[in-house]
Amino acid sequence: MRKILVFLSLFALIGSLILPVSAQPAFEPVGHMYIYEINPDGSVLCTWETTLIPKSNVFLYSFSFRGGEIDEVRAFDSLGQELDMEVEKTGEQVTMTLMLSGFELDKPYSFNLSFRWEGLITRRGEKHVLFTSVDVGDPQAAKIVVVLPEGSKAGISTLTRGNQTDLFQIARIGQRTALIWEVENTGEDTQIYFRVSYRYYSAALWVRDRLLTLIGVFLSIIVAGILLGYRSRVKGSISLLSGVLRKIGEKI
Question: In the CATH hierarchy, which fold is given to the domain comprising 2-206?
Answer without folding.
Answer: Immunoglobulin-like (2.60.40)
